[in-house]
Design goal:
Radius of gyration of chain A: 21 Å
Largest interface: A-B, 35 and 39 residues
Mean pLDDT of chain B: 85
Radius of gyration of chain B: 18 Å
Distance between the termini of chain A: 49 Å
Strand content of chain B: 25-35%
Shape of chain A: globular
Order of helices and strands of chain A: HEHHEHHEHEEHEEHHEHHEHHEHEEEHE
Helix content of chain B: 25-40%
CATH topology of chain B: Alpha-Beta Plaits
Distance between the termini of chain B: 35 Å
Strand order of the largest sheet of chain B: 2-3-1-4
Number of strands of chain B: 4
CATH topology of the largest domain in chain A: Anaerobic Ribonucleotide-triphosphate Reductase Large Chain
Structural class of chain B: alpha+beta
Low-confidence stretches of chain A: none
Order of helices and strands of chain B: HEHEEHHEH
Shape of chain B: elongated
Number of helices of chain B: 5
Number of strands of chain A: 14
Low-confidence stretches of chain B: none
Strand content of chain A: 15-25%
CATH architecture of chain B: 2-Layer Sandwich
Oligomer: heterodimer
CATH architecture of the largest domain in chain A: Alpha-Beta Barrel
Number of domains of chain B: 1
CATH class of chain B: Alpha Beta
Chain lengths: 453, 112
Amino acid sequence: MALEFKEILETIKMVQMQNLDIRTVTMGISLRDCAHPDINIVCQKIEKKILHYAHNLKETVEAVEKEIGIPIVNKRISVTPISIVADSVEAEDYTPIAQTLDKLAHQVGVDFLGGFSALVQKGFTKGDLRLINSLPQALASTKRVCASVNVASTKAGINMDAVKLMSQVIKETAQLTKDSDGIGCAKLVVFCNVPEDNPFMAGAFHGVTEPEVVINVGVSGPGVVRAVLEKHKNANITEIAELIKQTAFKITRMGEMAGQMVSQRLGIPFGIVDLSLAPTPAPGDSIANILEEIGLERCGTHGTTACLAMLNDAVKKGGSMAASNVGGLSGAFIPVSEDAGMIAAAELGALTLDKLEAMTCVCSVGLDMIAIPGDTPMETIGGIIADEMAIGMINNKTTAVRLIPAPGKKIGDQVEFGGLLGHAPIMSVHPFSSAKFINRGGKIPAPIHALRN
Amino acid sequence: MKELTQEEKMLGLKEPNALGQEVSRAVISVLGEDRVGIIAAISQVLAEQKANIAQINQNILEGLFAMIMIVEMNKVADDFDQFKQAVESKGPELGVKVTVQSENVFRYMHRI
C-alpha cells in the first residue's frame, strides 16, 4: 500500500520537531574467555576481544543513522560483569581493568561502556568484593566506564551487607569526584532483579546467559508522546492509553529497524529492543511533561503514580507489538536530572524523594539521578537503597538506585553534570537515622510468592 | 571472504553485509517557507544524480511549505551517503530544510 502524504509528514515531524531518536545501539560482548591470574594479561585479552567485535561499530551505526535519517544518539558497549572475568586475578585492585575499558571505549568511539559490575544478591565471592572495593577509584579515574551492583532479587532476597557496602562506596565515590559534584556516582547503579540484556547506561552489562556477542537497542521519544496528547485535549483516559500505545508502536518500530540493520551489517545477532521512554534534558523531551499533559498541574502531585502506571503499561503494550524480541528495562524512565519537567517539579517542591519512591513501584527502574545533600549519612543512603530494593523484591520487578550525595552541597543548591546527565536541585532526605538497621548486616530473606497480596 | 565455521554459526554470527539491504527508494522531504523554484531546484539535482521521481506531493500545512518526493534509486550511484549529501546541500541555498531518508523508515513505522 502506498504511503500517504500525512504519514510521511508525521514521521518527519517526530524527528524534526519532537525529538524522536534512537537512544542507543549497544553491543554486548562476552568477556568470559578473558580470565587469567595476571591482571595485565586479562587487560590484553579484553582489548583484543573488544577491538575484534567493536572496531567498526561506530561507523556502521553512523551509516545506518544517515540512511534512516533518525538520530542514533549513542553507541555503547556492555561486557560480562568484570567481577566474573577477574575472579581469578591475583591483584586486589581492579582499577587497571576499568582503565583499560575506558581506553577502549575511547578508541572505538563509544560514549559509555558498562559492565564494571558484580551480582551479589546472595553473597560475595572474593572477586565481587575486590570489584566493589575498587569502585570509587575505578569510577574516579575513568570517564566512560559504568558500574552496577545487583544486591537483591525476588528469588534471593536482599543482601544487607552489600547494601551497607554500596552506601559506603557511593559516599567515597562522591568524595573522590567532588570537584565535579560527585559525578562518579552518576556512573554507578545499585539494582534489584537486574536485567542481563539492558542496553541503557549506567546499568548495562552483558549477562552470563547472553550469547558471545549481540546487538541491543534502546529507544526514546517522550516528546512524540506528548505531542500526540497535546492534540487530543478532550480524550478520556481509555483513549489516551490507546494513543500512547499507537505512538509507542511507531517509536519502537524505528528501534527494531535500526537494530536489524546494524545487526545485518556487522554480521552479529540482534538481541532485544528495550521498550523505553527515556527523557533527555531537552525542552519537551520529558516524562514529567507527559504526565502534566494528561492533567496534573505538576509532576509529583496526587495522581502522578496512577498516570505513570497507565503510561508505562501502554508503552509496553504498543512496543511489544513492534519488536521481535523485547528485553532490558522496558518502561518509562524517571531520572530526575535528565528530565527538564522533573527538575522543574523538584525545584518547586512538587516532586519529593518519597513520591519518586512511590512512582518507582509502577514504572521502569527506580530512584534515578537524584542529588541529595553531601552530608547525608552513609546509613541514610543505605536506608534509601534498602527501601527501593524491597519494592523490587516484593513486586518481582527491576528497581535501582542512582544517588549522588553531592559533596559540599545542601538543600537549595544545584548540581550540574552537563550533556545527557543534565542538572538537578539537591533533594531533601529524612533527617531521622536508619543507622541501627543498616549496621545490623545480614540478609532479608526471599519473600514467599504463593500468597500474593 | 572466508566461510563461517559451524561454531561461528552456532554463535549466531553471520556474514557481515556491509551495505545491508540496498535502498531502492528514498523519501525526500522539503519543509520551510514557500518561494519560487524549490521544486525546480530539487528536480535538477535529482536529474544530475540520475534518480527518477516516482511520486510528488506538495502542500501548505500550518503556513509551512511541505513537499514530499518518493524517488527510485536504482540508477543512482550505489553510494547513498553521497546522494544524500548532494540533495540535502540544496536546502541552505533555498532556505528550506531538505531531508533524504530510506523509504523503509516510513514503511516500517506505518505498515505492519
